[in-house]
Amino acid sequence: MSTFTIFLILIIFVAFLLIVVIMVQNPKGGGLSSSFGGGGTQQLGGVQKTTDFLDKSTWTLGGLLLVLILLSSIPLVGSLDTVQSTVQDTDAIEIPAPAANDVITTDPETDGGN
């Protein structure tokens, strides 16, 4: 298994977790904390801490996703050094020059009349 494949699996896993954490939140601050009956006050279960946890986990997973994406390009950069060019050396190809006594003629019928 290559390094890029490992990074790809980790990126997919972190992206899935990030989607789950974002979907649990409510865009107006309700989300999971409001489903426990929490209003503006902190209750026994620590409803405010749930919102803080979801907020911190969103930022952490987003940062981790960014770092994994940047790190996944490192194996690709290192592998470019080992790639050999398939273009042949033009000095090694010899094109025969026309002989001095060869006569080049043009036929007006095949030349298009020019």
The proportion of residues forming helix, as a percent range, comes to 40-55%
The share of residues in extended strands comes to: under 5%
N-C termini distance: 63 Å
Mean pLDDT: 73
Describe the sheet with the most strands: none
Order of helices and strands: HHHH
Structural class: mainly alpha
Number of helices: 4
Flag low-confidence runs: none
Shape call: rod-shaped
Number of E-state strands? 0
The whole-angstrom Rg is: 33 Å
Describe this structure in words.
The chain is mainly α and 114 residues long. It has a domain at 15-27 and 48-73. The protein is 52% helix and 0% strand. It contains four helices and no strands. It has helices at 3-24, 31-35, 47-72, 74-79. α1 runs antiparallel to α3 (47-72). The longest helix has 26 residues, at 47-72. It is rod-shaped, with a radius of gyration of 33 Å. The model has no long low-confidence stretch (mean pLDDT 73). Its main location: membrane. It comes from Patiriisocius marinistellae. The chain crosses the membrane at residues 6-24, 59-78. This is Protein-export membrane protein SecG. One of its GO terms (molecular function) is protein-transporting ATPase activity.
